[in-house]
Amino acid sequence: MAATHKIGISSFAYCFACGSRPLNRPEHIMTPNELIEKAFTLGAEVVQFGDNMPLEIYNDDELEQIRLYAEKRGIELEAGMRKATPERLSDYIRITQIIGGKTLRVISDGIDFTPDLQQFCHILTSVIPQLEESGVVLGIENHDRFSAKEYAQIVETIDHPQVGLTIDTVNSLSHEEPIDEVLKHMAPYCVCLHMKDYVIKRYNGGGGLKITGTCLGTGRLDVRRVYDECRAKSDRDFNIIIESWLEPCETTEETLRVEDEWTTAGLAYLKTLL
Known about the structure:
This protein is α/β, with parallel strands linked by helices. Helices cover 39% and strands 20% of the residues. The chain has helices at residues 32-42, 60-73, 86-98, 117-126, 128-134, 148-158, 179-186, 223-233, 252-273, and strands at residues 7-10, 46-49, 76-82, 103-107, 137-141, 163-168, 190-195, 197-203, 208-214, 239-242. An eight-stranded parallel β-barrel has the order 1-2-3-4-5-6-7-10, surrounded by seven helices. Strands 8-9 form a two-stranded antiparallel ribbon. Helix 1 (32-42) packs parallel to helix 2 (60-73), helix 4 (117-126) packs parallel to helix 6 and helix 6 runs parallel beside helix 7.
């Protein structure tokens, strides 16, 4: 059976609306059902709840209601978490199962938790029986501390079809790795693709460079090539999830408006390509 690739939005496409940025925090914080409704309105097929909209704060009945709301809108759900201790991983696999999700995006580190490569592999191995029972697939996301090659080594060490990688198109710049280096090592194991675009600008009177976000399709990222390479190298199902790095505008109202405009335009752009 051919792999499937649906288009969706993450709660990280609405960082300000979700209240996860200290500046321009709105009085009303977007709820999971409101994010689902937004996805439905925009014609997205998937919603991924990141750790800026943590599902652990809801009880099982509330999670079931979120699942039912998404089902009525025809929206597929995915979960996301960070700080992958054995206990938290186990809890989030269960949460993902309750909301009817197939994929759990995972960032290894937390503020007070930075396992080395061997420790992280041991933790992932410990939840394999629960993954097999639940059917949930883990997508380990490239972040700041490990290289793209090391993320590939994690998957190769675990060597299980329910452990793969979430490829973020921008995160590895913090590790001084361009997208070509990320795809070289990670694309064969892609189970989720985070699309976000960026620009590099001179600032401080030309005394430095600044990497910042922009609306998908307007920056330096070759969106189509990234998708094509992941599709060619990975035989697994993966969804294409829009995120963004938006700097705050002068007012909260303007920030929320631009955030919504970026997501709307980004989805429309993806649909023209895919």
